[in-house]
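Whiteboard transcription, Tuesday session. T.W. wrote the structure tokens on the left side:
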């Protein structure tokens, strides 16, 4: 009986083994969503996840650039919805995006256009 227990324990341990980094990408993706941000204006912008008046800072996007920010799962609203608030550094007019719903296999993209006072948030299929 002890051999059966030992064999079962060894089989379970081997079945759970994996290469380092093999699930790290999957685990990381489960912890956050990747947000692609394009800032088409000169001012640097601070991007926040926004829900019921609460802000969660995601990062800063330099002027005239594109970058990827991580959106932690805990900052995504119930029902997998996301709304973003954009604040120009040294400016006063905040921009608020529409609310989008995120689903598996998709990522959010934000386009900031200070010239038209808009922050357009969309959801697109994953590229990677």
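and on the right, the sequence the group agreed on:
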């Amino acid at each position: 009986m002890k051999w059966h227990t030992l064999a079962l324990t060894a089989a379970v341990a081997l079945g759970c083994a994996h290469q380092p980094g093999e699930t790290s990408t999957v685990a990381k993706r489960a912890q956050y969503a990747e947000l692609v941000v394009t800032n088409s204006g000169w001012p640097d912008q601070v991007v926040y996840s926004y829900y019921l008046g609460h802000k969660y800072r995601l990062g800063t996007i330099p002027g005239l650039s594109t970058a990827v920010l991580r959106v932690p799962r805990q900052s995504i609203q119930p029902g997998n919805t996301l709304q973003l608030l954009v604040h120009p550094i040294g400016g006063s007019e905040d921009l608020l995006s529409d609310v989008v719903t995120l689903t598996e296999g998709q990522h959010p993209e934000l386009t900031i256009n200070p010239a038209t006072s808009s922050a357009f948030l969309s959801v697109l299929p994953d590229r990677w």
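Someone added at the bottom: The longest helix spans residues 2-16.
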